[in-house]
Amino acid sequence: MKDLADSGGMISAPGPSTYNLDQDVVVIVPTPSDEDQTQMLFIDAFLQNNRLDHVTQVMGYHPQYLECFLRTQHFMLRGDGPLPYDYRHYIAMIAAGRHQCSYLINLQKQEFLLQGGDPRWLRGLDHIPQKLRDLYEINKILAHRPWLINRSHIQKLTKGKDSWSLSEVVHAIIILVHFHSLSSFVFGCGINAEIDEESGHTFRPPSLSNEPVGIGSVGVGGGESGGGGGGSDSEVPSSPSPTASDLEGGVEILMQKMKSLSERTAAETTLEEMAKRFERVECQTVEISSGGELVLVPKADISCFIQDSGFTYQDFAKRGEVSDIPTFRVQDYSWDDHGFSLVNRLYNDVGTLLDEKFKTAYSLTYYTMGIRKHVDTTMFRRAIWNYIHCMFGIRHDDYDYGEVNQLLERDLKTYVKTVCCYPERTSKKSYHSVMRDFRHSEKVHVNLMMLEARMQAELLYALRAIMQHMT
Question: Are 226 and 232 in contact (CB under 8 A)?
Fold first, then answer.
C-alpha cells in the first residue's frame, strides 16, 4: 500500500453497496433523528467484530432493525448454545455456499480460524467430521426446497454414532436459515467485498460488464474483481427516461391502488374464492422466469464447500400439475402458536430474539414512500411478505392474495423471486428497474423484509418436521 501511494497511484475502495449510486462515504448515515442510535450500533459492532462490515453499514439505514439483527446474530454465533463455536462458523460457511456467496464465506472463514477451527476443514467437505457432513442434506433442502424436509431427516441426524441432540439440530438449523436468507440480502442490496478481501479494493475502476452477478467479472457476494456487484454502472443510465413499466410501478400509482383496496366494501369473500386467489398467484409465480434453469458453476475458491450445485429452487406449484406435497397452511402450524415455543424450549432465548426480529422487519415503517409522506404502507409490506411465503408453498388463510396482483407488478415479482430463490443471479439492472421512485433506503427496507420472510418460511418447515419427530 505504501509503495503504491509513494508512486502516486490511487487505491479506491467502493462503498458498502454497489447499487447505491449516491454514496460518497463508506459509512452510511441515516436520517438525523436516527443518527445517534446508528452510530452507537456501529461502534458496538466494531468493538465486537474488529470491523464495521458492509452488511452492518447498509442495514444502518434502519437502526431499529439493525439492533435486533446484531443481537440475534451475536447470540447464535457467540452466545450460549449447544454447538461448539468452530462448528457454528463452519455451518454458516456451508449455508452461504448454497448461493455461492463468497462475501459471507470469507467473513466466516476468518471467524472460524479465530475460534480455533481446524485449518484442514477449510480444504472442503471431505475434510470435516462426519457429524458436520451429515448436516449437508438438510442444508441443501432448506436453502432451495424447504417443503421437502420431513421427520425422517431429523431422525437420521439424531440417531447413530455421530448423532446430534435436538438442541444441536435446532441451533444448526437457525444458523443455516439465517445465512441462507442473509445471502439473499447480500446479493439483493449489492453488498461489496470488504476492503481487506481480494476484490475489496482496486487500483483502477472495475471493468464494465453486463454479466449478472456470480458469473465472473464483478463481485457482490460471489465477486471476483473490483468489488463491484451485480452488473455495472453501464446498465443504469444516470438520467433514465420513464417507461411504461416505470409508470406502472410508480409511487403515485401504487398509492392509488392501496387507497382503492382500502376503500373496498366489506363484502364477504368465500373461503373457496380466497383459496382460488392464492392458487392464481402460485401459478403466476411459476410463469415468472428468474434464470433458474441455468446452473452457475461455483468458483474454485468456494467450490470445496458446495456439493450438488445443480440442486436449486423449483417452483412449489408446477405448471399444470397437482403437487404431491400439500400447501403449508399457517392456521395449522404458525410461528406465533407453535414455532416460537418449540425453539425457546430447545434453544433457550433464541425464540424471543427471532420473534422480535421478525416483527420489527414486518412492522417497520416511516410512513413514507419515495418523496411522499404520511403514507400507510401496511398493504404493500404485507403483500411482499405473503408473496414470498406463497413462493415457498405457505398460505395465510386470512389474507386476500388478490392484493398481491394489485400491488406488486411483474418486474417487482421477478426481482423478489430472484433475490429469494436465486440471489446469486441478482443484477444491478434488476435492482434499479423496480421501485423506481423508492429511495435506496426504502429498497434496503424491502430487502430486509425479504430476508426475514424467507428465513421464517424455511424455519416453519424445519420446526414442523422437528415437532413431528418428537410426537
Answer: no
Question: Nearest-5° angle of CA 98, CA 46, CA 305?
Answer: 20
Return d(Cα 330, Cα 318) in angstroms, integer: 21
DSSP state of 397: T
> Active site includes 101?
yes
Q: What is the pTM of this model?
A: 0.86
Cα–Cα distance, 8 to 3 (Å, whole number): 9
* 200 touches 194 (CB < 8 A): yes
Q: What is the pLDDT of residues 218-253, one digit of tens each?
A: 344 443 333 333 333 333 333 344 444 444 458 999
Residue with cell 476492503: 195
- Enumerate long-range contacts of 75-82, CB under 8 Å, 24 or more apart: 75/349, 75/350, 75/353, 76/171, 76/174, 76/175, 76/178, 76/350, 77/111, 77/175, 80/348, 80/349, 81/171, 81/347, 81/350, 82/165, 82/167, 82/168, 82/171, 82/347
Burial class of residue 4, CB neighbours in 10 A (0-12, 13-18, 19+): exposed
Tell how strand 328-329 and strand 394-395 pair up: parallel
Q: How far from 20 is each of 54, 243, 253, 440, 443, CA to CA, in Å?
A: 12, 21, 24, 6, 10
Concatenated DSSP letters of 83-133: S-HHHHHHHHHHHHHTTT-HHHHHHHHHHHHHTT--GGGGG-GGGS-HHHH
Distances (CA, A) of 109 to 96, 112, 124, 268: 11, 5, 12, 55
- Please state, in angstroms and rounded to a whole number, the distance separating the CA atoms of residues 347 and 174: 10
Amino acid in the structure at residue 360: T
Q: What is the 3-state secondary structure (H, E, C) of 311-324?
A: CCCCCCCCCCCCCC
Q: Is residue 462 pLDDT above 70, yes or no? A: yes
Burial label for 268, CB within 10 Å (0-12, 13-18, 19+), is exposed
How does 219-248 read in b/e, with b if 16+ C-beta sit within 10 Å?
A: bbbbbbbbbbbbbbeebeeeeeeeeeebee
* Contact between 317 and 282 (Cβ < 8 Å): yes
Torsional sign, CA 297, 303, 308, 313: negative
Q: Indicate the DSSP class of residue 336.
A: I
Contact 400, 277 (CB under 8 A): yes
Q: Which of 68, 101, 189, 390 is catalytic?
A: 101
- Which residues touch 439 (CB under 8 Å, ≥6 apart)? 370
Digit-coded pLDDT (tens) for 360-418: 999 999 999 999 999 999 999 999 999 999 999 999 999 999 999 999 999 999 999 99
Confidence of residue 204 (pLDDT cuts 50, 70, 90): very low
